[in-house]
Amino acid sequence: EVSEVKKEEEVSKVKKEEEVSKVKKEEVSEVKKENATYESQIEPSVRSMVVKTPFSIISEVSSFKIFPKINIKNQEAFVFQNEKDVGRRELDSKLLTTVQQYHSEAYCEIVSFNLHEKRVLMELYNKKVIGNIEENKVETSSWTPIHSIVLEGENEGEINNVITAKLPIEIGKYKGEIILREKVVFKEKVIGIKEVEQEIVLTKTEFLVPKVIKNGQNTFTVEKGSLFVEGYIYQCIEYISEQSTFHNNMYQLMQNIVLELVVQVIQEQEVQVRMK
């Protein structure tokens, strides 16, 4: 009987140990699940941000492929005086001729651009370092003519083989350079930059304040003017972020950009087209 009691106690003890072991395994399994869930929460994800970097160039241009035409009003006066009459006297006598010329406004279009840049993704630990980071800046150059000048009267054909048409004519083609520094600050913890999509958008263009010289009777030539171009660099930045619950550091992207912009000035003018 004593032997049977001991056997029952041993069996009961083994069962209890098995139950405890099972509980511990279940606890370990739950911990692993929690860790797996936490790790899945901080897996990297791809996000995007839109940045618009404004720029503008205004500079004098004095070289033209074909001279632009502007609206001119010219008035000529011939002063004369009639013979004196007994009952009246003319104080001022003039014969006036007024000529007004109307032309289409010159406008500007983008031809091409080259974008050279240096990108640096930084993780900043010290607030003093953050304060010393240089701010955004813009530096511009003057316009450089890159067209070949066409001399008026060159390769003129016979008058009978020419028709007159009003067409968009390239007044000139110019290249300008803009140096920019852009600082992009991220709110998340950023691991890396995946892709940056870039486009140049012009918002305003003007051919301003031309200097006009008179060549002869009712003929004028634009000697120089100012070309104003304003726009921005559109950037869609795709970056890889880690969705951690808390971080003290600041993450920012520093971009040093050199933009080479080529534009052309166009105006509708009457031209003579040679017929074959």
TrEMBL record:
Pfam families cross-referenced by the UniProt entry: DUF7852
The organism's place on the tree of life at top rank: Bacteria
Keywords: Coiled coil
Domain DUF7852 stretches: 44-271
Record keyword RNA-binding present: no
Coiled coil, from the record: 6-34
NCBIfam families: BC_2427_fam (NF045793)
Protein known as: DUF7852 domain-containing protein
Species this chain originates from: Bacillus wiedmannii
